[in-house]
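Let us practice reading a record.
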Amino acid sequence: MTHAPVLTDDELAAYHEHGYVRLGKVAPDYEIKALCRRIDDIMLGKIRYDNMLMQLCPSAGEPELSKQTKVFKGSTLKYRKVQDLEQDPLFLPYIQHPLFRDITRKIIGDDVSAFRTMFFNKPAGQGVPINWHQDGAGGWKLSIPPKVTIWTALDATSVANGCLQIIPGSHKSMIPENGDLLSPEERAIHAPDEKRLYLEMETGEVVLLHNWTLHRSEVNTTDRPRRAFSVCYVDAATYRAPTGQRFPKIFPEYVPLADEF
């Protein structure tokens, strides 16, 4: 059973109070499987885009290819990130799902852009640990603070394969003094082990996150990949403060930018 196309009042209240809401499955299994096949085809070079940011996983052992650039890094399933997926005709309808339209209208407004539409991957037996951080707390330098990330498990996630870890309620203030990552001192205060929640999820399950909800993940110790898809939705008036750069519009309709980041 999939979630209705409307965020309930209780779910909205939970988002504001705890900084996250588990939404269950939003799309049918066949649609998630199609997205998995499509991202595998993109990583293998069977489908090519000239202006998608791509990064090979550092654990693959090729440092030069682990830099995030708009260059295809070779036919491999060991990519860590593929970004700008709103350009893809299979991913765009998912990004524009009616439930996501309802969520963004209630939290952001009518005109909504995507700061990033990104595939995350922890290859089988690999991946890198990601330390506690708040997305967009300081490092993104956006004119309007981001509020909404919708995170979809393309594969089932578990503690063993590096599932998302969060600190509920940590979204109510900006914590890092520098950038997005917490310092060791900040981690001790704001992210002690007893507050940590492991978000183990089923394939196709979705979680709504406030961008400032502290989160991290560990490496994948299993023999299967841990793939996920994340979209950060922002007010369409948002721009990157140092450059004035704006982002592709998603709602009420898709409007691509000629020069995306």
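A brief commentary: The longest strand covers residues 112-122.
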